[in-house]
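Bit of a strange request maybe. I'm writing a small parser for structure token strings and I need a real example to test against, not something I typed by hand. Could someone generate the tokens for this chain?
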Amino acid sequence: MLVLCGFLLTRLINMNNYDTKLNSAQEAKFKLAAAMAKRTKDTVDYDLRGAWLKDPKSIGGKGHLTDEFKKPNHPTFSKDSKYSTPNNMGGSWTAGKKGSYTFIPSKRQISRAGGLAPFKKAFNKSEQGQNSGFVIPPSY
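Reply from user aminoacidic:
Good idea to test on real output. This should exercise your parser:
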């Protein structure tokens, strides 16, 4: 728990600002869908409401969701997130051989995690079972 301190601290800094706003009827449907899919914890670092609103079926499985709705406190927050901005830039993914992927985190992500070691631990936990790895940014 201590190792993820940087990410946990960031999670306490109102990540709700990154949640898509739903009306009361939509919110009730979303909560039911998220509970049935056992994804309620995914709302901490992912705008699950936005993903659900775009495609209600997207949250139905346990599969990996797209980067489009990752919040800045997600370990693999990328430039493909709608929340990535020039002042809060996410990392980048590159495709490798045999379906593998490599992530290059932004310097801000490593800093937000509390340094390279905590970032590495959070990345490995987030990407467990995925065919991916990361490289340290050249300018780090």
